Amino acid sequence: NAVELLERLLERDITPDVLTDQTSAHDPLEGYVPVEYSFEEAARARADDPADYQERSLASMVRHVRAMVQLQNRGAITFDYGNNIRQRAKDNGFADAFAFPGFVPAYIREQFCVGRGPFRWVALSGDPTDIYKTDHALLKLFPKDSGPFAERLHRWLLGCHLNPDALL
Predict the structure, then answer these.
(1) Which domains does the chain have, with CATH numbers?
(2) Residue 18 has what pLDDT?
(3) Is-contact 120 91, C-beta < 8 A?
(4) By the 8 A CB rule, do 58 and 28 touch?
(5) Which residues of 27-52 are buried (b: 16+ CB within 10 A; e: fewer)?
(6) Alpha carbon distance 121, 134 (integer Å)
(7) DSSP 112-163
(8) Which helix H or strand E contains 79, and what residues bound it?
(9) Helix (H) or strand (E) holding 63
């Protein structure tokens, strides 16, 4: 369990360089396993007493976030990935739950503000060549010399295809 691991790091005075949490804390019933349960025990406890299980999940989230904050205070670069664990911990009594940021506000938002961001798309036609057409259009819209991230975009797009020459 992540909580037990983080608490053990604290006990042993071990501080990781980087610390994140990507548990499914947004769902304390189906997405998070409380400290005291094995995976199998958690499945039974969810079915037997969902309300108690959720209470235990929320209590574990408080311990989880508290340990993350303590490790951050020791120097670990700490963030979550928008899974709501900080809010759950705050709502359940841990006032310093937002001492560390979410990943997007800390590292990505600045890129969005200047018009850079992840592109995700699918070919509704079902024709894989449509993805090549879309990627080819991006390569034309953002030439390699058009800015500091354009070269990375080219490398990424070309690396995603079995036949990158088809894009050029």
Answers:
(1) 2-110 (3.40.50.10730), 119-167 (no CATH)
(2) 96
(3) no
(4) yes
(5) ebeeebbbbebeeeebeebbeeeeee
(6) 9
(7) HHTT--------TT--HHHHHHHHHHHHHHS-TTSSTTHHHHHHHHHHT-S-
(8) strand 77-80
(9) helix 50-73
**Contact (CB, 8 A) for 90 and 33:** no
Structure tokens given for 152: 């990375």
**8 A C-beta contact, residue 157 and residue 167:** yes
20 close to 82: Cβ distance less than 8 angstroms? no
> CB–CB of 90/98 below 8 Å?
yes
Q: How far, in Å, CA of 32 to CA of 30, rounded?
A: 6
Q: Using alpha carbons only, what angle is made at residue 98 by residues 95 and 99, rounded to the nearest 5 degrees?
A: 95
* Model pLDDT, residue 96: 99
Provide the total of helices (H) and of strands (E) in the chain, helices listed first. 8, 2
Average pLDDT per consecutive 10 residues, the chain (168 residues; last block may be shorter): 96 97 94 95 98 98 99 97 95 98 84 66 81 86 82 82 70
